Amino acid sequence: MPDLPPSEVADLGLAEEGAARIAWADRAMPVLAAIRERFAAERPLAGQRIAACLHVTTETANLMRTLAAGGADVTLVASNPLSTQDATAASLVATHGISTYAVRGIDHEGYYRHIDAALDREPTITMDDGCDLVNRLHGERPEQADRVLAGTEETTTGVIRLRAMEAGGALRYPVVAVNDTPTKHLFDNRFGTGQSTIDGILRATNVLIAGSTVVVAGFGYCGRGVASRAKGFGADVIVTEVDPTRALEAAMEGYRVMPMAEAAPQGDIFVTTTGNTSVLRAEHFEAMADGAIVANAGHFDVEIDLPALAGMATERREVRANAEEHVLADGRRIVVLAEGRLVNLSAAEGHPASVMDMSFADQALAVAWLAEHAADLAPAVHDVPADLDAEVARLRLAAMGTAIDELTPEQVRYLASYDQGT
């Protein structure tokens, strides 16, 4: 076997399986493939060292291949202990020569040991999904953070944390919020999370969604997606919210809207999608029916108050893979999926590759843009430039064989004028 890059993976013997799966995902990622071809010719990332803390999936593997094709020295670590696909990690190292630190189910100490390994490579650009790498860098290595050009952030939870860092004057370099660009949050968060969350619940339980009551906590883009797909399966969907505008939108979409205290005794399946902590708490567990299933589709495992539930349980047992039953003192059973972590990645395979094609195209183009423009940006959270997002949309439409209209010269003049009235 040729010399391999620094790494820690579960089993390099899984590389052949991983290579086949990466190639399968690549077939559904034509936008990223087009960018990879362009990057290979132009090498916009030559000389950049990228530390990426992302979910180690087949789709992410194709993003890493694209960054490497652009000339970057890439190190990938997992952003969640249960989302790593061990075969994918093995193939990244053995087939594609990309330094990867990811083992499914790794403990807390190992998780941060991997992040430190990526930071030891002195990255010039960071890519994060949840802000753990950026937090570690700023908290443990502030002098190193000053040497980083820029970064990107993939998910809502991470953007929330970064904006808090910016507001507190703690953020030391510019970060582009890839999560907030339309081709990411409109499609990845809504269509990707919607489908993959239901997929994770079904794989973990094999329950019938039709006729059940599904409670969705939060009606952001992820919550909209989960609610829509559950409704499409025939569920009676209840939405809980703290934002009055989103609650109103959910009601006008035809969902029942109520506080969680009222929803708790009615739900069969609960899904948290808020990005906040303790959304399902002891008082809600006390009210749930026997057999209630609780799952989380937010980035961190804090949305379900698992310590409270564990304290209420007289017995805990695994009833299926990724499903742990908590038996309460009165005999009621509450089933927690995927240890309260992202159910779509921990119990299933995450978003379909065709959705991640757009999100990771945004990531690739944003990183190349940062390599050129980071010196002109303040240490703050920045949006993806609109023209980059439009390029991703155009490439995706072209891959789908879909054409759209163009403005006529007259229409362009009209939109730029102010002297034409009724």
The whole-angstrom Rg is 22 Å
> What share of the residues does DSSP label as strand, in percent?
15-25%
Q: What is the CATH architecture assignment of the largest domain?
A: 3-Layer(aba) Sandwich
How many DSSP H or I helices? 18
Give the terminus-to-terminus CA distance.
75 Å
* The CATH topology of the largest domain: Rossmann fold
**Structural class, from secondary structure content?**
alpha/beta
Kindly describe this structure:
The structure is a single chain. A hairpin with a 4-residue loop joins strand 14 and strand 15 (333-337). The termini are far apart. This protein has 18 helices and 16 strands. The protein has 422 residues and is of the alpha/beta class. It has an eight-stranded parallel beta sheet, with helices on both faces. It has two domains: 8-184 and 351-400, Rossmann fold, CATH 3.40.50.1480; 192-346, NAD(P)-binding Rossmann-like Domain (Rossmann fold, 3-Layer(aba) Sandwich). 46% of the residues lie in helices and 17% in strands. The model has no long low-confidence stretch (mean pLDDT 96). It has helices at residues 15-27, 30-42, 58-69, 86-94, 108-119, 132-140, 142-145, 156-167, 182-205, 221-232, 244-252, 260-263, 282-287, 306-312, 343-346, 353-373, 386-400, 409-415, and strands at 8-9, 49-54, 73-78, 99-102, 125-128, 150-153, 175-177, 213-217, 236-240, 256-257, 269-272, 292-296, 313-320, 323-328, 333-337, 381-382. It is globular and about 65 Å long. Helix 3 packs parallel to helix 16 (353-373), helix 9 packs across helix 10 (221-232) and helix 16 packs antiparallel against helix 17 (386-400).
